[in-house]
Amino acid sequence: MTDAATALEIREVSKTYGSMRAIETVNLTVGKGEMVALIGPSGSGKSTLLRCATGLVVADPSSGPIHIFGDKVQEAGKLSPKVRRARSRVGFIFQQFNLVRRISLYKNVLLGALGRMPTLKGAMGRFTTEDRRKAMEALERVGVKDHAGKRASDLSGGQQQRGAIARAMVQGAQAIFADEPIASLDPVSARRVMRLLHDLNREDGITVVVTLHQVDYAMKYCDRAVALKAGQIIYDGPIGGLGRDRLIEIYGDEYRDVIDEDGVPA
Question: How far does CA 263 lie from the centroid of its chain?
């Protein structure tokens, strides 16, 4: 079994869709408390890798094991009996928020407590006073407490995404895996979401792995970058190592004219 102090360990994992190889023999270790950006061009395998990490996508039978905080998620194309426990330790943030649009933001955030409740109590919505307190505290911390009673469908994208993060907080997540969480947000909302993830990492010690198209956000908020291209990791190191030549290697010559000498998109 992998060291429980390691938040995520992926060994020799591949995923094929028909004739297309999305990721190929990927190895990745993320330490507890890290904030890691997964970057790379569209179709490079970032989202597939993150979804394999939690068992939302089942890897190829040739793949090795994936562990979250020591609990096995899957191996050899089969989910582990411990996958539910592993998932309970990770809050997964989707690009399209994944809130129940017809219920209030407050009730959406309360759903984060379901993983700690017996199935029957959860189905009947018997949340404890402590669960309700945690939900309101989480909403306040992410800055949307004043919108708690509004239906999710009536909120902006940025407000919904912060609500999704609050739900992960109520879940008690030790790690947050965020798949393009700012792709559909305006610049102000995007900064708020990234700053929130950064604060949760720094202040609460929550491990954050976030897929990003925006290299400038990765450079500002993350310490480590893992770059994929054609399903393989071609860079894994400090965020400061993403100079102009390295970014052109990752994204291709078409990016040569949009990246300045310091490696930041112009």
Answer: 24
The residue written with tokens 């390691």 in the block is 6
Query: Chain centroid to CA 163: how far?
Result: 15
Residue-number span of the structural domain to which 80 is assigned: 1-89+192-197+214-220+228-266
- For residue 162, being part of any structural domain is answered with no
> From the CB of residue 53, how many other CB atoms can be counted at a distance below 10 Å?
28
pTM: predicted TM-score of the whole model, two decimal places: 0.93
Q: Tens digits of per-residue pLDDT, 122-174?
A: 555 789 999 999 999 999 999 999 999 999 999 999 999 999 999 999 999 99
Residues making up the chain, counted from first to last: 266
The DSSP 8-state label assigned to residue 223 in this structure reads S
Tell me, yes or no, whether 143 lies in a domain: no
Residue 146 lies in a domain: no
Give the number of C-alpha atoms closer than 13 A to the C-alpha of residue 129, restricted to the C-beta side. 0
Q: Which helix (H) or strand (E) holds 158?
A: helix 157-171
